[in-house]
Design a protein that fits this description.
With about 400 residues, the protein is mostly helical. The chain has 14 helices and two strands, in the order αααααααααααααββα.
Length: about 400
């Protein structure tokens, strides 16, 4: 009996690792379009100012899909839905480099967003089903950490492998990765796991029970939206500026992602160990100020290396601010509202990413054939970034959070 139990644990560990792997490649598919967007627009013979639409088409489609998809309690059904999503995402990713027209590429990214948005919901639910109840919290936290890991390892790796002239190779590799994950899912046996929760939450506990609760959820949802939206209005265009205005070599761009991603991961680890001794409001306030400083420095300087360093620093401080906002919101909410916020958070983030990429392109115009003007975008970004700590301070005055110190 002990041997059988150990074998089941070993198999379950492989399936949990596969769930991490799926989320890693899914995050990489979302992130890699940003540094490659300038090269894709050039290959499609459209203005680089339209690069933000590539991120927007994926994110908007993923948002709408994640609002419609719901997890089930049947492991076999979730496994089959994983297979469908991975197959669809693999096909859409393979097709992107084969398309010559920019609008066809936008359609391919939208199709990838449909499958990617569904995959994000289903993979998280599948992980919760195959993980024993006592390990579930840790497993889900590990799953969320695949995003900075993809930024640290995946993006620089693909940039190094493909380079500027061979960007389609990255999407072929990603398509192959999704195909491999689909094959591994097909070979798994989900019918013997996991321990159900002894007291599953009632549906009544998962929805706001009063107008005050709904108002709080709306305020917190707006803060999450504004945090991600203000970040992506500038982060989607930072690589474009470096490539177009600064004529940055692609190997240096990949290096900035290494330092930015590694710095983000270290900051996340530091905050996880030290958050009890820190004031979230002070951190959000200071990180917002640093975001403005690094963005203005990077976009206004004429020195390539200073702009590159500013981009790496911007990635670190912006990801840290997003992490702190998300963590503080979830940990301070009462359990019922926390479940509600967890359910809509994925959609809010995708909406913010999509609109951030689209809106950023509206505030850019060409001054010369090989130069772009970002002054209007910088002004909009600065205003929105400074609104985040203001909204954070305002929500503390009339929230139903557990007691927290914001001195």
């Amino acid at each position: 009996m002990t041997i059988q139990h150990q074998a089941q644990n070993h198999t379950s560990s492989r399936e949990i690792f596969l769930a991490y792997l799926i989320h890693f490649f899914m995050a990489l598919d979302l992130l890699i379009i940003v540094p490659f967007s300038a090269y894709i627009t050039a290959a499609s013979h459209v203005s680089a100012a339209q690069a933000g639409y590539l991120s927007a088409s994926y994110a908007i489609a993923a948002t709408l899909t994640s609002l419609c998809i719901r997890g089930t309690q049947h492991q076999l059904r979730e496994k089959n839905r994983l297979l469908i999503c991975l197959t669809g995402l693999a096909i859409a990713t393979f097709c992107l480099p084969l398309l010559a027209h920019f609008h066809a590429m936008l359609a391919a990214r939208a199709i990838a967003g449909i499958f990617g948005g569904a995959l994000a919901v289903i993979n998280l639910n599948y992980l919760s089903l195959i993980t024993p109840a006592e390990q579930r919290k840790r497993s889900i936290a590990m799953l969320m950490s695949t995003f900075p890991l993809a930024l640290t390892l995946g993006v620089p790796g693909l940039l190094w492998v493909s380079g500027e002239e061979n960007w389609p190779l990255s999407f072929y590799l990603l398509g192959g990765a999704f195909s491999l994950c689909a094959l591994l899912v097909l070979l798994t046996n989900p019918n013997r796991v996991s321990q159900p929760d002894t007291a599953p939450p009632r549906s009544a506990d998962l929805i706001p029970r009063s107008s005050a609760d709904r108002s709080l959820i709306m305020r917190l949802g707006f803060i999450i939206f504004l945090t991600v939206f203000s970040t992506f209005t500038i982060s989607t265009q930072f690589p474009v500026m470096l490539v177009i205005n600064q004529q940055l070599p692609d190997n240096l761009l990949s290096l900035s992602y290494v330092f930015g991603g590694a710095g983000s991961f270290l900051v996340i680890q530091w905050y996880g160990r030290s958050h009890d001794r820190l004031s979230d409001f002070r951190l959000i306030n200071r990180l917002s100020a640093l975001m403005v400083v690094t963005a203005l420095t990077g976009f206004l300087t004429h020195q390539m290396m200073l702009a590159l360093a500013s981009f790496a620093c911007f990635m670190i401080v912006s990801s840290a601010r997003t992490l702190i906002v998300m963590t503080s919101i979830f940990t301070n909410l009462v359990p019922g509202l926390r479940s509600t916020m967890a359910g809509i958070q994925n959609a809010i983030q995708h909406i913010a990413v999509g609109l951030g990429g689209a809106v950023s392109s509206l505030f850019i115009h060409s001054t010369q054939p090989d130069q772009l003007n970002f002054s209007s975008l910088l002004l909009v970004f600065t205003l929105m970034t400074c609104m985040v700590p203001f909204c954070w301070k305002l929500k503390n005055k009339k929230s139903i959070y557990k007691t927290e110190t914001e001195t």
